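look at this stuff:

>
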Amino acid sequence: MDQPVLIADYQCIVGEGPLWHPIEQCVYWIDIADGRLFRYEPATGTHALVYGPGEPIGGFTIQEDGALLLFMARGAIRLWRQGVVETLIDELPAERHTRFNDVVADPLGGVFCGTMATPDRPGRLYRIDPDGSFRVILNRVGIPNGMDFSPDLRTFYFTDSTDRTIYAFDYDGMTGSVSNQRALIVIPEGEGVPDGLTVDTKGCLWSARWDGGAVYRYSPTGELLSRFSLPARKVSSVTFGGAGYSDLYITTAGGDRKETEGWGAGGLFRLRAPVLGRAPFLSRITTVQL
């Protein structure tokens, strides 16, 4: 199998959230701290900064119509369409002192979205239903991170980096509700921190390892299957894309400290994966109701 190849290097402080756009046939990713959004088109080999710098962007989803739904500082949610920004909500009162972090669209068109903890209160995991209504899924979260679904859509995976744990939940495909939380994978101290994740067509979990310099692949039961090293300590997130979803795109952080974080810190990498991924689910959020 090929080694990871550096595709673009914008020296991202917190490069994160790569996501394949099935309509445009490209991958987008962000630099959280600077509020920058980037785009890479494999067909032409070109990449560019397409939005920002600005307020921090924690994560985003691809909308059914191709727009990007940005989850930002203070709980703000905005739609981005080819450079034009529309604000759905400028602030969540309960989150005005923090920001969104990782997010994922679900099979119903809703979005699971987590907010960071502050010194005064824990973070939360929300779900936005397609009608724009909010519900709290978890109200005691440290750093909400990698989320995805099993191929049969019966299991929802959620990473809390503070707990060093990837959790599994039963997922209700009729209502979008989750239940029966259990720890699937717990990362020992000293082995880095689990960050973003994605699931392949065999149901295995690919988990980026912050301060671990690698991506780890686990079986659906949590058994470690393989490890793929990168030239950066802070490997932040992963997503499948490209023709047939045979490529794994990987973001890294620490681009402002390459001398200590590695020459690949802050870059976007591509790995020819030994297994196929799948298309991301598309969100259908056009309004937000608090």
